[in-house]
Automatic annotation (TrEMBL):
The keyword Hydrolase is annotated on this UniProt entry: yes
Superkingdom, taxonomy of origin: Eukaryota
UniProt source species: Sanghuangporus baumii
Lineage of the organism: Eukaryota, Fungi, Dikarya, Basidiomycota, Agaricomycotina
Family annotation (Pfam families): Peptidase_S15 (PF02129)
The UniProt record lists the keyword Amino-acid biosynthesis: no
SUPFAM superfamilies cross-referenced by the UniProt entry: alpha/beta-Hydrolases
Keyword field: Hydrolase
InterPro entries: AB_hydrolase_fold, FrsA_esterase, Xaa-Pro-like_dom
Protein's recorded name: Alpha/beta-hydrolase
Region annotation (Disordered) ranges: 271-293
Domain Xaa-Pro dipeptidyl-peptidase-like positions: 22-170
Molecular function in Gene Ontology: hydrolase activity, acting on ester bonds
Amino acid sequence: MISENDTPFELSNIKIPSKTSGWNLDAWKYVPKNKESGPPFPVIVMAHGFSANKKMGLAPYAEEFVGKGYACVVFDYRRFGDSDGSPRECVYTSEQLEDYRTVIAWVRQQEEFDSQSVILWGTSYSGGHAVSLASEQNLKLACAIAQCPYVGKAAKPPFGVFLKMSAYGIVDLLRQMVKREPLYISACAEPGKMGAMTTPDSIAGLERLVRDKRDYPNRISASSMFEFPFYNPSSKASKISCPLLLVIGERDELCPLDFVLRRVVRASKNVSESRTPGGKTDKALSFQQTLVS
């Protein structure tokens, strides 16, 4: 077991006030111990995808980045992981985008970080957030990385399952309107079952990311599924104002490769791509292919 003294970075747990009074975003702050390249250090702001939290495999990415001289701030959205907020496990896209902006603003206020070298990283649904936020010129991002991003199109469930989920979603909306507990569905489920993600590799991918089942309840409010039709990061691709690297799995069954290429890569001269032979959760998604050069 590696002791903290043997690591090339200093790791601390921090709380960042969110836009909701009394709700804090829980985050890990990684700072390189090697002071030759800083401070201030370039900093990468990271969060996970749909229904996930930072305990699900983000630490190895942050450790790889910090080994290359970058600081990292890895956070959970409101309502997820160790962050505050209720009801739990409810996806509000606008809220998640706002949380990214909050953390970006926070890191710019820290003397140990280079305020002119703020980098955004996201995967899957948060990869879509990276695409969306890269188009916001006022954020003045140095660059962004979107791994296997959702950019407006995802695999659809069978029609019967779709109808059932829609009914559950409507009931959930009504329950929440009267301040009752949300109606939850599985976040990941076997193909043909009711869940937010039901491609053949969804369950296998989940098992790779979750070391302790207590860290991930595998549920999402049913009405969270209504976020997908109204969220289209690719519509902002032509406005991307900073270098954006897309790390794309060629066998990604959840976020189609051809749609990502057609709607994002070809939309802006600021976008470049790096492909891996695997899918969204395949081990072939190597760390080196996501590193900022």
